[in-house]
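WARN retry 2 of 3 for item q-0093 after timeout on previous attempt; input resubmitted unchanged.
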Amino acid sequence: MIYSISLYYSLLLLLLPLATGLPSSINTTNKHTKPYDVCILGGGATGAYAAVRLQDHGKRVVVIEQNSQLGGHTETYYLPNGSHVDYGVQGVFDDKLSRKFFSRLGVKWHRVLPSCQGEDFVDFTTGRMAESPVGLVRSLLALVRYRLALRQFSFLDKGLYDFPDPVPEAIFRPLREFIEENSLEDVIPMLFFWAHGVGNMLDMPALYTFQNFGVPHISAVLGGYITPEKGMYELYWAAAAVLHNVRYQTKVVEAKRSDSGVTLTVQHLNGTQDTIEAEQLLVTHPPTMEKLRGFDLTSEESDLFSKWSWRNYYVAVTSNSGIPDGRYVTNTNPRTGPGFLPEMPFESLIQYMGVPGHPNTKIVGPMNFTAEDAKQLIGSDFARMKTAGTYSIREPEVVAFADHSPTTMMVSPEDIQSGFYRRLYALQGQRSTFYTGLTFCSDYSSLLWAFTDTILERMQQR
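OK item q-0093 returned
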């Protein structure tokens, strides 16, 4: 997921080049014994990509999507004047795989460029201006040292949770220990910009920050990002137009799986039910116990899927706020120590996206932090800025809002150390069920697509 591009973008071109390979093609050999070859659960970036790839290779595919459109964390707000704000995913890596997918769907793209003219640091708990936690030059130098420090974790270079045995202690210890041991305090604000979805990141296992802003992400900054000319939604509208069978506003209420195939009972929002039979099942949404209610889970699956914790994540577009156009307003708390990071729940950033009067914002909270809580936090943060006189705040209105929970799926340090991810990856193919998505790979579309290609190849070998 790339949720924001800042003025850092144009200065990060000091870093190492991006190199991404394209996986081999999919084997199309198949003996039809069920109505569908593959049923895909979830039509986000990963599910939509998998569906197009499989259908292009002659597979009979059905996508089960709970929302009314494809795209997952993609959110585009269109204004009457024809302009738009991408307030979810804002771009994908400018690499061979991304360009090929855009071209397949006939979607024109352009490079993502910084839209801000400057950055303000504000303590959202008081509404007052704060000092920058670190100068930009020092931050960039620290980023280079951070990149060098990550060389020891080359197994993370593709965004996977494919660890050596034993698992290196540094990745399951708190991030603050890695920062202190490598004297990387100056890189903390930049890590927060890209990995704010981890929440209180310094206290969490370093792994989850590395997976939000590590080697592949730093390299991608040099390669750049691309986005459809008419907004990120355009990519998934194009995908929807070519796919033959997408069941929108539909969820699985019962699943029976075996080595010979899967039988799913699905229910539409209007209450009607249907039965779907497929040779294989591809789960692309996070495999939580709630999302898999009604599945015939094994004891191993139940044990693994019950260990998750996550962050609730919300995105919004505001209007009539009074925040000056062209500014990024970064939440900064000088009382929290190195990096001046806010504590959950928080708005990480009020971000100008190039459309006057319509900044967007991102809100991160614990698992019990609701959408209503997020909207109230937006309002109270603006109110504090108004009271402090920091900006000429008017009457802010949330004109677009989306819930991207759950995100940043995590397990405890003890579970990481004891081989949780080896057990998780070992589920691939059991009882005709395969997995991809943000719980198996870093949550950036380009990395997810590359990982998904490897899973599709495995599915064809069955």
